[in-house]
Amino acid sequence: MKLTKLTAVLIALSLSAGAMAAKHDVNIKFSKGISKKQRKFMDRDLEVLEKLEFFRDADQETLKVMGLQKLNSKTATTWLEQRVAFVIEETDWKKIEKKISIEEKFFSFENQNVEPTIERPTSAPTGEGVVVMSNLGAALYYAGKSSRSLFSYPIKTGLFKKEKVKFSSPRAGLIMIGEGHFMDRFDHDQDNKDAKANSFGRLSTFFHEARHSDGAGKNLGFFHAVCPDGHDFQGYNACDRNLNGPYAVGAQMTKEFLKNCDDCDDVVKEKMKVSYLASVDRIIIETKKPGSSDSFDVTTLEFSLEMKEMLLAFQSGAEKEAAMKEITELKAKILAISESEGTIEVTASQYIDASPEGERID
């Protein structure tokens, strides 16, 4: 796999600092390139998590999604530490690519010949977005596995200190953060930037992104699915086709933070509820697929769909956007005919094994 092709993978996964004294003991290292302001907020968030008293028992659904027996500050921070080792600043992909080294060729990866399921979006992004958070560790592990090479990436964590991340597992735990993670408009409490509720919002995103460090084989990385027709994010890789993926993790942690935020006022709590529901809405409960059909209309539409999907890789701009729209319409027509014929197949989403491939090399 060429590194230049990793943009799609990152979308489907999808945010003199090293010397700063943190007020927490969470074992996650930060790049020196992260701004002091951003590092201050992240240290504050981890301090809030480490000192949070989960005085209300966690929902059974939360424990099932997280794979925990009990939720408290210790189990929550340990869960995060197991999936996140390093956090770096937003960096242009070309710069990242130049710093990647091959530690070992013909490295022995688990499930070497098993490709993860990565769904192709049928809608193109409009306008300019901002980076919130991205799990580079899972993406670079997959890239290395695809080329049968163990990749590594250097991180400057102090004035005279460098660390090296080796991508021997999706649990390598390299997370990139961007300005979107700290935007005021995402704060639950607009009156107090340092409010715990704002830390809870960022932590939920952190837990969401950490889930991408899990999974093996076809479920490697818990890559996002394409949202179905009729969804607010129809055609984008912005949903999950499982019950314990990143959006489920983010939703359940938001719910637990809300339950344990006694100093949050009603306005803040309502915003947290909205955030919870927004994540739940990204979880696809069932998937409908056209069954086998001898219909001439279906055969003709499927042929046209296949050709348009093949040509998509060679298109760009308005032409690609128009083609994506046609693909969505063709799929909807095929599904509608299948429903009318009674041949539609419905698959319920499942809780999938979150055990990761390989082991982190420190």
In short:
This protein is α+β, with helices and mostly antiparallel strands. It has two domains: 3-284, no CATH class; 288-348. Helices cover 40% and strands 13% of the residues.
Number of strands: 11
The pLDDT mean sits at: 90
Strand % is 5-15%
Strand order of the largest sheet: 1-2-7-4
For the biggest sheet, the summary is: 4 strands, mixed
Contiguous uncertain segments of 5+ residues: 15-20
Number of helices: 11
Rounded to the nearest angstrom, the distance between the terminal CA atoms is 25 Å
- What structural class do helix, strand and pairing data support? alpha+beta
Radius of gyration: 21 Å
Envelope shape: globular
What this model shows, in words?
The chain is an alpha+beta fold and 362 residues long. It contains eleven helices and eleven strands. It has helices spanning 7-12, 36-51, 60-66, 73-83, 93-99, 136-146, 196-211, 246-259, 266-280, 296-311, 317-341; strands at 29-30, 86-88, 101-105, 133-135, 149-158, 161-166, 174-177, 225-226, 237-239, 286-289, 345-348.
Question: What is the secondary structure topology, with strand pairs?
Answer:
Elements: H1 7-12, E1 29-30, H2 36-51, H3 60-66, H4 73-83, E2 86-88, H5 93-99, E3 101-105, E4 133-135, H6 136-146, E5 149-158, E6 161-166, E7 174-177, H7 196-211, E8 225-226, E9 237-239, H8 246-259, H9 266-280, E10 286-289, H10 296-311, H11 317-341, E11 345-348
Parallel strand pairs: 1-2, 2-7
Antiparallel strand pairs: 3-5, 4-7, 5-6, 8-9, 10-11
